Input
Amino acid sequence: MAWFELENASEVPSPSLLIFADRVRENLARMVTIAGGPERLRPHVKTHKLPQIVRLSIELGITRFKCATLAEAEMLAKARAPDVLLAYQPVGPNVQRLKALFDAHPETRFSCLLDDAPSALALSSAFADSERALGVWLDVDVGMNRTGVADPEVAQALYALLVELPGLFVRGLHAYDGHVQARDLTERTAQANAAFARLDALADELKRAGFPVEARVIGGSPSFKIHAQHGGVELGPGTTVLWDHGYGTNFPDLEFLPAALVLTRVVSKPTDNRLCLDLGYKAIGSEGPPPRVQLRRRRPTRDGELADRGAWARAARGEVLKALVARLT
Ligand SMILES: Cc1ncc(COP(=O)(O)O)c(C=O)c1O
Output
């Protein structure tokens, strides 16, 4: 039976996200191989948000994780993840929410990002009386222009403040290079290495100035293999765990397996050439241009791939289709 066939499809409600555990395990194993060891990985959990996948990761020796929200951080703590990095700086009421989570899970080593002094001061006053300090990472903008400090002098001044602030201790530098998206591997390697060079230069400057830089975290999936060549960094891919159709198409050099599909049914077929699916269109990652899913109907070809792209157009009402999603977010 092909990987995406289900024995009990008629019992599965639609829409449903199907996760194929063997493929997840295989993707995690490939991540460990590329990284050169589980201790070099800090996978992002935003694409799956699942404790089951966290546990599979821990079974392979992965102890460090990244997440985007406090809900994901809580999921990780409950799944007994030893080390959880919240990859944003908490502001407003989220400072106290992080503190409550931190207090509720003393066995988990929490940390978060910071990229400005007022946020650092607010976090420090929330944690100043705590028995344990909160780990913080200076968020460095290495070209994506999202969060993070880009100017090395500003970065150094903020790092100096973080080292001094009570309630916090500095873990090191974090950089996400989501702008590294070139399909061509040579071009992507140049983009990724330019991002790495900015992080590396800052780490060198900080060390020269006498600051500790215990660790550095860099990258997402497109740059994963490239940064794996550099020593002394933790690698932060997330999409590699479930893989998706968009990354699979854009980055064929990354040999991961699609491990998730959305099961959908034809809920209405008012005319011969119109189908309405309960695919939950708005729930599928909405970045990027349409088509955001690739629908599949027929059995696979001999090489195991999903086949017959157009066949879904002939699907009947109530029929089950599988959707490969362009972007799992
Ligand atoms: C801070 C951070 N790190 C890592 C990742 C994972 O990147 P990817 O989806 O390319 O695996 C993301 C994704 O958005 C991110 O925001």
